[in-house]
Design goal:
binds 5-phosphoarabinonic acid; about 450 residues; five-stranded mixed sheet; globular; five-stranded parallel sheet; about 50% helix
């Protein structure tokens, strides 16, 4: 029997009153109905809602088979994608294994991520890593037209053709894209690449539990069945719209109330460095889903105690614009006992024999109380164990909280119109055919 995660709201007492959360029940009911009856904005993108139950079991088996093949014939697995097309895979791998996965992996390939910037340095570095290694590539793009991954894919495909030849290149490229449309799908069909589908009704930032995330996660040797089982348990747990029995919905309510109180920044905090990329995944999920129409919380993140030595001063004593959401991992699967120093030079012998997790927990307790005293409230999400099941549960917790929170906020959580604006300007300035008028106007603004 797995222990579920829980939301602890005691450290927002004094900032948010219990009756304020209760007063949001009618809005929660409305959001829940819109989501489950598919009547709200963005209702074409709700495939993630029942994915843990309805996912394509055959494709999942194929993912496991292909992952085994890649593990056997590959030293360096390159995942090309940006935004929702890479963050989930990287976040899950780093949380379940380590941010140092590539230094520690033994029976699984190194996994690196490309095409998530427009940096020549970053791309050249990946190409340099390919030298002397058996390389396979998973290019992931739902639209199949995103510039950053497309440039990286060009470079890596070219590298493969030059080093292993056209035939072997075909075997070493795996494509995750739309089931029927897009440039990438066309290329994959023409070349005969092994292809996985991004479901039509699941947007990038909600796609970690589709082939988008699952193939790289499986290649890195993580337990994808455990992830799906945890997500399925969360799907069941968070089906009750009554906020007294639904931590996911209470989290959505609390953050909305804090926003209404002028806390425009939500700082996700973890005391485990392996959570850092999970915060990046969470930032995209909430930032892209809620940050629109002049609304939304700005999602930020920190790792404690590391960042208590850089951001701690601001959080304790600076502008009162933020609240924290701390994700506390109970059993990380690691133990370290602090040793005894006969000379006690650093004066820490009072800690000898204690596990490091004990010190980390006291750091949390001391910090959360100090920050409350300084005027920064904290929500606390308690995760009993670091394992695939609990992570799957958490991924679903955040996805559903994001959808409910977005509906409470009054936005469409499933579109991202603002992401297009920089792309249009960049294409115009690069001289892409069809953008001539915009180019002239933009160049005038830049040169005035
Ligand atoms: O959440 C989203 O939809 C976006 O962040 C996309 O994941 C990102 O822009 C990449 O898009 P694509 O997968 O089409 O290349």
């Amino acid at each position: 029997m797995q222990q579920p995660i829980t939301l602890d709201t005691r450290y927002i007492d004094g900032f948010v009153r219990a009756h304020e959360i209760a007063a949001l029940q009618p809005q929660v009911d409305a959001a829940h109905t819109m989501l489950h009856q598919k009547t709200g904005p963005g209702h074409d993108f709700l495939g993630w809602l029942t994915l843990p139950r309805d996912y394509d079991k055959e494709e999942c088996l194929r993912i496991k088979t292909v992952a085994k093949r890649i593990q056997a014939d590959t030293d360096l697995f390159i995942v090309i994608g940006i935004g929702g097309s890479y963050l989930g895979a990287r976040a899950v791998t780093e949380f379940l294994h380590s941010p140092n996965y590539n230094l520690l992996c033994k029976d699984t390939p190194r996994v690196v991520f490309a095409g998530n910037s427009i940096s020549a340095q970053a791309l050249n570095e990946i190409l340099a890593l390919c030298e002397g290694r058996r390389v396979s590539v998973n290019v992931i793009s739902k639209s199949g037209t995103t510039t950053e991954p497309a440039i990286a894919f060009r470079a890596l495909r070219d590298h493969l053709v030059k080093t292993v030849g056209a035939e072997e290149t075909r075997r070493r490229i795996y494509v995750t894209t739309d089931r029927v449309k897009g440039t990438l799908k066309g290329l994959a069909d023409r070349e005969g690449y092994e292809t996985f589908a991004v479901p039509d009704d699941i947007g990038g930032r909600f796609s970690v539990l589709t082939a988008v995330g699952l193939l790289p996660i499986a290649v890195a040797g993580c337990d994808i069945d455990g992830l799906m089982a945890g997500a399925a348990a969360a799907m069941e747990s968070f089906d009750n719209p009554d906020i007294h029995f639904n931590d996911c919905y209470r989290y959505a309510c609390a953050r909305n109330i804090l926003l209404r109180r002028g806390r425009a920044v939500e700082l996700m905090v973890s005391y485990e460095p392996c959570w850092a990329m999970m915060s990046e995944w969470w930032k995209q999920l909430f930032g892209e889903s809620e940050g629109k129409d002049g609304k939304g919380l700005y999602p930020a993140s920190a790792i404690f105690s590391t960042d208590l030595h850089s951001l701690g001063q601001f959080i304790q004593d600076g502008s009162r614009i933020l609240f924290e959401t701390a994700v506390l991992i109970g059993d990380t699967g690691d133990t370290f006992i602090i040793g005894n120093d006969p000379e006690d030079i650093d004066g820490l012998n009072f800690l000898a024999g204690k596990p490091l997790s004990y010190v980390n927990n006291k750091a949390f307790e001391g910090t959360v109380l100090a920050h409350a005293d300084g005027g920064t409230p904290s929500l606390v999400i308690r995760v009993p164990r670091r394992d695939a099941w609990h992570l799957g549960y958490l991924l679903y917790f955040f996805e559903k909280a994001c959808a409910i929170s977005g509906y409470i906020l009054g936005v469409n959580p499933f579109d991202q119109p603002g992401v297009e604006d920089y792309k249009r300007n960049m294409f115009a300035l690069l001289g892409k055919p069809g953008y001539e008028a915009e180019r002239a106007a933009l160049e005038k603004r830049l040169n005035d």
